[in-house]
Amino acid sequence: MGLLCAVSLPLIFLTVHYTGRKTDFGDASVMGAATTSLFAVRGAFPIHCQPGEGLDLAVQGVKLRGLSNKAVWLGNSQLHAVNQFRSGERNAPDLLSERLANRSIDLITVSLGNGNLQEHLILFHYLLDHIQPDIMILPVVFDDTREDGLRDSVVDLSRSERIVRSLEQSDIGRKLLKISSASAPVPSDEATPQERSEAQLNIWLDEQVPLWSARPEMRGDLFISLYKLRNTVFGITPSSKRKIIPGRYSNNMAAYEAILSTAASSGIRMLVYIAPIGSDRGERPYVDSEYRRFKEEIALLARKYGADLENFEDLIHETLWGLKDLTTVGTGKELDFMHFTAAGHRVLAEQLERKFFTEPFRAREQRR
Amino acid sequence: MIFNSVTYLVFLTLAVCLFWMLPTRSRLWLIFLSSLIFYGFWRPEFILLILFSASIDFIAAQKIDQYENQARRRGWLVFSLICNLALLFYFKYLLFFVDNSLAFASVFGHEIPTPLLSIILPLGISFYTFQTISYVVDVYRRMIPAQRDFLLYGCFVTFFPQLVAGPILRGHELLNQLTQRPSFNVEMFAGGLRRIIYGLFLKVVIADNIAPLVDEGFAGSIAKMSALDVLTLSFLFGFQIYCDFSAYSHIALGSARLMGIHFPENFNFPYIARSPKEFWQRWHISLSSWVRDYLYLPLIGAKVDDRSVGGLAVASQEKVFAGRYQVVALFVTWAVMGFWHGANWTFIFWGLYHATYIQIYRLSTPFRVMLPTWIRNLIGWGVTLLICMLSWIPFRANNIGDALSMYAILFDPLRYSFLGLRENSYLIAALLMIGFMLTWLANRLNLKLAESYERIAFLLECGVIAIASGLVFVFLRPVSQFIYFQF
Question: Measured between CB atoms, does A5 come within 8 Å of chain B?
Fold first, then answer.
């Protein structure tokens, strides 16, 4: 009886807590309710998307529009997140795409929350294979070099033979292929009876038991609670210094170099910028010496492969950064070092256009 | 079929319900057929292999039992051993020997092209082979009579809770229980469910969530690792493999108990051990006692035991050989123990590493006894924990070179000045260590509480089960197989 009660209690609690609730993890749980994700659409086709969520359509749109120049902009959540969003506001990819369309440049943006340069390498090969861009815009963010791993939607992009062949050209590409092949789905005709029955049972449970289908949300909530608890216990705030993680850093820098080298050998114009980053009274959340070294390496590689480089780290004025939900236990807001308001997005779009698509740039394009 | 799946929970529910509704003989049919279905959910074609292997031992045991002539008895024993080991060799070790032979030949300038061999390792072959070997040897030693009923014997070999990853049971531990008709007991049933919940918690909540940290750490560049990273990774993997494998044993014990069948314990808080001897009395007990009874004790010419309990270190009564021969026997036993786990030099290295530690421990006995007991226990615990955790490096590393490189980092003072893993890795390793110690303490406390304050102990346990079952519900997914499935 006691055991029955003990097993039933959590199920009753979860049923009460999760019935009729649906959290959009793209917004509320990952970045907080104060931050909104925007992905622009032109006509029937997205011009800004994430892998697995509209990328195929965005590529199709580029092909149908058939403009003479094609540009891709890869980045992290800074590109799609808007702090303190108000109806009608637009983000930088949307604004820049509109401005570049007037110059016959078709821009599509692909951004990944907590993305890393290794994922961008796969994305870049995918886009290279599908739309053969003329221009690539690549923001480099120190935080992204602390990330690792490939999400399923990115791994799926690396499955075609042509992309495998192009990834095989670099050490880091081969490493990524090894990771992606390890997570390759078993073809349904090769699946064991266990795999087939498990898939069927889960589909059935998802359809019949709402509590079962809410489990990913429960896992998300639990991890966010643990993350907030950790931050509270150890006093981790947005201003806390994020240190280099050597293994991840070298993998991401290798991926950065592979992107530049592939783009250079494909004759693609490369526009690299050090991404804007907020500060707390002038203090960045990085160890100064490590951040300096990072910027030097980025610049060195940009020069090596002939990429145009701009440093936009101070581009966004402190009043345009906005606030995000607390990342510690409790309610309230805190400084957001990564995402800014719509006014900040406007500044970024204008600067990108001014620095990279002004007369000298066009003159150089024509010389080519 | 894997335990951490909805499929298994449905299968187990059906099997248990039918079990209690059927008469004794039909129960045996149910166990046998459901065990074959359980195994067939992985690859149906390998059911024939397990039946073939079991049949050979069934016949060999009967012949051994039937003959009085010692030479004939030994002949059938050797026949059975050769058949079992040949199957194990073909499926598990052939590729290893081919690769190493070719590499060896190339050293002498003979470049032989690698033949294209594709051999699938049958799930649980190491476990059921050892189980059937112990059965035949026990019959040979006249510890148990040979079984005349193939159905009963088939249930012993294939009984699904222990088929794929143990515990490795002895004939007398299971055969008698299968012939009895236990009456339904609510306490026993609740105990079985509790063990299944604990097991699933350890697997889907703990082990599967540590796995990404371990995988990332071992996939990273060794050149960029610090000494603290190596220590952290060894502890993380130590906890992952413990949670993973003990989870399997919990679920196996719990599933069997739902049908009124008791298995001996396979784990008992191994990381609180104060000596290598104690560690192997607490870790994978059924394997370490198997190796003791069927390899180590015969090698040193001592009398054997007939229990799959007590671990490797249960003292033998009559040591015939001692001294240098005993050391050789120790190292041979541990090399086999390592090789049993997998066809790779890393596992042999792991085995010899443990043999070395045991030998050093034995040699240090005169010095240790001079210390006060509490100091001896404290130092013993610290040293054993560290050495056992570090032993997991070759177990998990990609190759022997990587394992040695990781060990070398520990001896480089410059590698103690930085950290190379994500901050959470250190935090989680520390939390797991604290959690493990607290669980051990809570377990002891609950046992004492249960003696005097039964109600409080009951409520505490209900609280733990409520949290564990809630988390199991949230995390139950067959994300990964159990680590020991590969062995």
Answer: yes
Q: What is the pLDDT along chain A (368 residues), one digit of tens a residue?
A: 677 777 777 777 777 777 766 555 444 445 666 788 889 888 889 999 998 888 999 999 999 888 888 999 999 999 999 988 888 899 999 999 999 888 888 999 999 988 999 999 999 999 999 999 999 999 999 999 998 888 888 988 888 888 899 899 899 999 888 887 766 665 666 788 888 898 889 889 888 888 888 888 888 889 988 999 999 999 888 888 888 888 889 999 999 999 999 999 999 999 999 999 988 777 888 999 999 999 999 999 999 999 999 999 998 988 888 888 888 888 888 888 889 999 999 999 999 988 777 755 555 555 44
First to last CA, chain A: 80
What whole-number distance in Å separates Cα of residue B240 and Cα of residue B212? 10
The question of whether B341 is a catalytic residue gets the answer yes
Per the listing, tokens 């049971």 go with B169
What is the rounded distance in angstroms from the CA atom of residue B325 to the CA atom of residue B323?
Answer: 6
**DSSP code of residue A105:** E
Please report, to the nearest 10 degrees, the dihedral formed by the alpha carbons of residues B200, B201, B202, B205 taken in order: 110
| Cβ contact, residue pair A6, B212, below 8 Å | no
Tell me the pairing of strands A41-42 and A45-46.
antiparallel
Closest residue on chain A to B221 (Cα):
A247
Q: How far is CA A104 from CA A353, A358, B57, B142, in A?
A: 13, 14, 79, 90
**Inter-chain CB pairs, A–B, below 8 Å:** 91
CA B456 to chain centre: 34
pTM for this model (two decimals): 0.84
Strands (E), chain A: 35-37, 41-42, 45-46, 48-49, 69-76, 81-83, 105-112, 135-140, 269-274, 308-311, 323-325, 333-335, 340-341
Question: What is the rounded (10 degree) CA torsion for B344, B346, B352, B357?
Answer: -150
- Best of A177, A194, A197, A232 to disrupt the B interface by mutation (most B CBs within 10 Å)? A194
Listed in sequence order, the DSSP H helices in B342-372 are 345-363, 365-368
d(CA B451, CA B259) in angstroms, rounded, equals 28
The encoded tokens of residue B314 equal 């249960």
Query: What DSSP line would sit under B277-289, residue for residue?
Result: HHHHHHSSHHHHH
Domain ranges of chain A: 25-184+193-367
Does the beta carbon of A289 lie under 8 angstroms from any beta carbon of chain B?
no
Return the CATH class of domain A25-184+193-367.
alpha beta
DSSP A54: B
Sort out which chain B residues have CB atoms less than 8 A from A10's CB and list them.
Answer: 466-467, 469-471, 473
* B-interface mutation test, from A7, A215, A222, A225, most B Cβ less than 10 A away: A7
Partner-chain residue, chosen from B6, B469, B474, that has the shortest CB–CB distance to A202: B6
Across B395-461, where does the E strand assignment appear?
Answer: none
